[in-house]
């Protein structure tokens, strides 16, 4: 970390949350000298195992930590902190009930951990999920909630002075995946004669998702799409040969996701605000 270096801190729930809607921007920013750290609340223990030679249910968390570190290094992050809660699984699954599941963690304990990280990293910009977590994953919604508690707590001199000097993060963004990208993906899959059953019920699943046109920053990542897909490929247990994201040729996928979109969550934007980048106009002390 050097003086006046822009600093970015991401608050996420699983290894692989950092790739699809954000990876190109992270690669571009790190290449341009932005300091990036990431927080992941779980090791994704309830995720899929695409190939049984890669992991077992018992060691999946350890394998996914390695996959996350591979991706982080590819994208140019300086460090990743795992909070060590267990993946809560999809809504309605048995994993939700486990006492060590992230969604059952004590809010105050999580917030204190996040505040200590915020006060150490002193980010100018923070990233987390929008309120619906993209598609309603309970862990995504939980980290959204905890980030909103932790950022003001970190700035409050009366909150836990033992955790470091207060720090006000200037902006919080929600990276968003737009409906249009998925519709284009579906159209291309139809054109290639590929099955599109994934899209059954897609509108229903996205009923509470962030509106596609509500964003303040659009970043063209044409220079770093290769790096983004290299990071994506680190997550081998999640994106196996049968993955939805591997059905189209990689060049077409890269094209579909070649712009990344960010909605400004804090401070609340004025109508019609557009920024050229996440740090545009900030005072980088
Ligand atoms: Zn996730």
Q: Which descriptors would you attach to this protein?
A:
285 residues; alpha/beta; seven-stranded mixed beta sheet; 9 helices; binds zinc ion
What does this structure look like?
This protein is 34% helix and 15% strand. The chain is built from 9 helices and 7 strands; from the N terminus they run βαβαβαβααβααβααβ. The longest helix is centred in the middle third of the chain and has 18 residues, at 138-155. Strands 3-2-1-4-5-7-6 form a 7-stranded mixed sheet, sandwiched between helices.
Blueprint (SSEs and pairs):
Elements: E1 7-12, H1 23-31, E2 35-42, H2 60-75, E3 79-85, H3 107-121, E4 125-127, H4 133-136, H5 138-155, E5 171-176, H6 179-191, H7 202-205, E6 217-220, H8 225-234, H9 250-256, E7 259-266
This protein binds zinc ion (ZN).
Please state roughly what percent of the residues sit in beta strands, choosing from under 5%, 5-15%, 15-25%, 25-35%, 35-45% or over 45%.
5-15%
Largest sheet report:
7 strands, mixed
Unique ligands? zinc ion
Separation, N- and C-terminal Cα atoms:
12 Å
Q: What is the mean predicted local confidence, pLDDT?
A: 95
């Amino acid at each position: 970390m050097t003086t006046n270096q822009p600093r970015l801190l991401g608050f996420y729930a699983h290894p692989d949350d950092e790739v699809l809607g954000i990876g190109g921007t992270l690669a571009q920013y790190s290449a341009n000298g932005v300091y990036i750290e990431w927080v992941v609340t779980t090791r994704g223990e309830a995720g899929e195992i695409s190939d049984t030679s890669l992991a077992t249910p018992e060691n999946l968390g350890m394998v996914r930590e390695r996959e996350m570190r591979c991706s982080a290094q590819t994208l140019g992050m300086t460090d990743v902190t795992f909070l060590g809660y267990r993946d809560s699984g999809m809504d309605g699954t048995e994993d939700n009930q486990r006492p060590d599941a992230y969604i059952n963690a004590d809010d105050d304990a999580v917030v204190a951990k996040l505040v200590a990280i915020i006060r150490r990293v002193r980010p100018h910009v923070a990233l987390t999920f929008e309120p619906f977590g993209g598609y309603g994953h309970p862990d995504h919604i939980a980290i959204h909630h905890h980030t909103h508690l932790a950022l003001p707590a970190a700035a409050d001199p009366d909150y836990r002075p033992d955790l470091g000097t207060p720090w006000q993060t200037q902006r919080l963004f929600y990276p968003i995946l737009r409906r249009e990208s998925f519709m284009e993906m579906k159209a291309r899959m139809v054109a290639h004669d590929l099955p599109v059953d994934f899209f059954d019920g897609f509108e229903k699943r996205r009923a509470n998702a962030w509106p596609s046109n509500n964003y303040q920053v659009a970043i063209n990542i044409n220079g770093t799409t290769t790096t983004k897909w290299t990071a994506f490929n680190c997550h081998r247990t999640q994106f196996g040969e049968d993955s939805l994201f591997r059905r189209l040729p990689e060049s077409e996928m890269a094209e579909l996701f070649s712009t990344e979109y960010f909605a400004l969550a804090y401070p609340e934007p004025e109508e019609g605000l557009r920024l050229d980048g996440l740090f545009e106009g900030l005072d980088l002390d």
